[in-house]
Amino acid sequence: MLLYQPAHFGQARKSLDAGLLSATFDRLVSEDEPQKYMIIVLGALAMQVGAEMDARHLHIMRSIYQTVGLRDDGMETMKWGLDRYGNHGKPVPWHAGGELFSPDEPDANIQ
Length: 111
Prior knowledge:
Blueprint lengths: L8 H22 L5 H14 L5 H10 L7 H13 L10 E2 L2 E2 L11
Antiparallel strand pairs: 1-2
């Protein structure tokens, strides 16, 4: 099962790349009490559709994912995704239990 499955991954990616992702990330990070868990969820969803993420946002995700209360398998999965995310429009095929979860689009698999 996907974290979120929009009808059109390309349209979701286009909306996020048009500024929605960066603005939302910046808002979550700049709050008096940064919403770390929401930052991780937002980043995971963006990675799932292949949205382009600012290097600073990826850096934040790498620095906080182990502190937000993910279970061990969640931390392993997030590390796996962050290690493989190329930030070039190709979605991360999230996995769990040895299965890959990815959209049916041909560009979904990371090479």
